[in-house]
Amino acid sequence: MIDHRLGEDHEALRDSVRTFARKEIAPVIGGYYEREEFPYPLVRTMGSMGLFGLPVGEEHGGMGGDYFTLCLALEELARIDSSVAITLEAGVSLGTMPIYRFGTAEQQREWLPRLCGAEVLGAFGLTEPGGGSDAGATRTTAVLDGDEWVINGSKAFITNSGTDITAFVTVTAVTGTKPDGGKEISTIIVPSGTPGFTVAPKYSKVGWNASDTHELAFDDCRVPAANLLGERGRGYAQFLSILSEGRIAIAALGTGLAQGCVDECLRYAGEREAFGHHIGEYQAIQFKIADMELRAHNARLAYYDAASRMLRGEPFRKQAALAKLTSSDAAMDNARDATQIFGGYGFMNETPVGRFYRDAKILEIGEGTSEVQRMLIARELGL
């Protein structure tokens, strides 16, 4: 029979992250959010807890866990705050995993131990200005000149790309033309501080205000030929693989936000009085919260299913898209309902619900829009 109960190790990890999120993140994150400040102390603590190395083998300095363990951690973090959760998600899924999956032994020795301990962060430069979801429209180029790649182009909306501990960005670039006339796209590691690599000022964002996001520019930026990540011309396939895994992680994050809305509304419904009664006594509020719990539950089942298929080595692309779509819808709907339940207080950034409302929208856009998820699902159905 199917059993969704967690094992002892997973339960212990989830409880540890839940305690950390409630005791250390919750009391301070509002200030970071208002100041639009990256929470370095929290990231250092997560590094010391081993969260940035959860799915990486112990031989590389990781915890030797699995991707599902990372998802459990992300859900618990996002129940409190999504800025911290996306810092971990992007740091692992987009920063560490490309090196872990496709890096040479030398690249892994150089980067993985420090990435796993959050001594440094890595970023993934895929999206380009004007490109959006069309990753095949990559215009950034990398030309091999002797033993160096010369990179020219720009990237947009790149998470963890401008912090004081960002060590590199892995960029997708056109490195030639395929026999069929299509673009040959490869991925190349560009260390921070490389001449010609410029990080623009941070974006002013609607949400995720305590996370780090920048536009990047490359102007005759030269890096060693050995910085090629994986096989030349396989960059597009590599990024598809990374994004499929990342969608499960984002689904866990969205589930956490949806469940956080339930948590806050349950507390508020037992405290807030209107017309002589706690608002939790009114059926309108009860039904709204029941619907919110339903959405969070379904989102959790969806990412559990996708993660279990991935860990068993089964095809999971459709399930990852289903999970990402389900969770982002749940997050948006729950954030809207929670804001309504809280009334005026839900419109204030000082409340978790106000931040949940601002943070939810990007889940329908980042790491594949909801429209892209529907397109992937339809293709997997043979349409």
Automatic annotation (TrEMBL):
The Acyl-CoA dehydrogenase/oxidase C-terminal domain, residue ranges: 233-381
GO molecular function ontology, one term from the record: flavin adenine dinucleotide binding
Domain called Acyl-CoA oxidase/dehydrogenase middle: residue spans: 123-221
Source domain of life: Bacteria
Annotated keywords: FAD, Flavoprotein, Oxidoreductase
Family that this chain belongs to: Belongs to the acyl-CoA dehydrogenase family.
Protein name, as recorded: Alkylation response protein AidB-like acyl-CoA dehydrogenase
Lineage, uppermost ranks: Bacteria, Bacillati, Actinomycetota, Actinomycetes, Pseudonocardiales
